[in-house]
From TrEMBL:
<dbReference type="GO" id="GO:0005524">
    <property type="term" value="F:ATP binding"/>
</dbReference>
<dbReference type="GO" id="GO:0006364">
    <property type="term" value="P:rRNA processing"/>
</dbReference>
<keyword id="KW-0067">ATP-binding</keyword>
<dbReference type="GO" id="GO:0016887">
    <property type="term" value="F:ATP hydrolysis activity"/>
</dbReference>
<dbReference type="GO" id="GO:0004017">
    <property type="term" value="F:AMP kinase activity"/>
</dbReference>
<dbReference type="InterPro" id="IPR027417">
    <property type="entry name" value="P-loop_NTPase"/>
</dbReference>
<keyword id="KW-0963">Cytoplasm</keyword>
<keyword id="KW-0547">Nucleotide-binding</keyword>
<keyword id="KW-0698">rRNA processing</keyword>
<keyword id="KW-0808">Transferase</keyword>
<protein>
    <submittedName>
        <fullName>Adenylate kinase isoenzyme 6</fullName>
    </submittedName>
</protein>
<keyword id="KW-0690">Ribosome biogenesis</keyword>
<dbReference type="InterPro" id="IPR020618">
    <property type="entry name" value="Adenyl_kinase_AK6"/>
</dbReference>
<dbReference type="Pfam" id="PF13238">
    <property type="entry name" value="AAA_18"/>
</dbReference>
<dbReference type="GO" id="GO:0005634">
    <property type="term" value="C:nucleus"/>
</dbReference>
<keyword id="KW-0539">Nucleus</keyword>
<dbReference type="GO" id="GO:0005737">
    <property type="term" value="C:cytoplasm"/>
</dbReference>
Length: 144
């Protein structure tokens, strides 16, 4: 499996469409990202890492995993990363309102979308096992 860190690819290839002054971060050009990743994604065998999903074509994925975090833990994690003000508030509110989970459910087949907790090191280990099982099950059913 190949890890595709969309944020890193965007940074390396300058796949931006301006800068958001409020959040102090570049604005991702989703069309450029899709164009940049199309060939790699068509080869298969990728794990795509990003904090949103609605602009990615469903044909790229067999499994979509949404990691969820307790709001207090998320607040502390983001604060340690230097998030503050509106950026911090909006990120925590997105988790409270399950924004990314709903985005995934609206964008992909419900059978593809899996919600997993991401609060503890034990969750991390369990999630790796679950994801490996999902990949193995899909591979057994679809790859001859």
């Amino acid at each position: 499996m190949r890890h595709v860190d969309v944020g890193l690819v965007a940074k390396q290839q300058d796949l931006y469409d301006g800068f958001d002054d409020q959040y102090q971060c570049p604005i991702l050009d989703e069309d450029k990202v899709i164009d940049e990743l199309e060939e790699v994604m068509s080869e298969g065998g990728n794990v795509v890492d990003y904090h949103g999903c609605d602009f990615f074509p469903e044909r790229w994925f067999h499994v979509v995993v949404v990691l969820r975090t307790d709001n207090t833990l998320l607040y502390d994690r983001l604060s340690k990363r230097g998030y503050s003000g509106q950026k911090l508030t909006d990120n925590v509110q997105c988790e409270i309102f399950q924004t990314i989970l709903e985005e995934a459910r609206d964008s992909y087949s419900h059978s593809m979308v899996h919600e997993l907790p991401s609060n503890t090191p034990e969750n991390f280990e369990q999630n790796v096992d679950i994801i490996c099982t999902l990949i193995s099950e899909w591979t057994s059913a679809h790859v001859k």
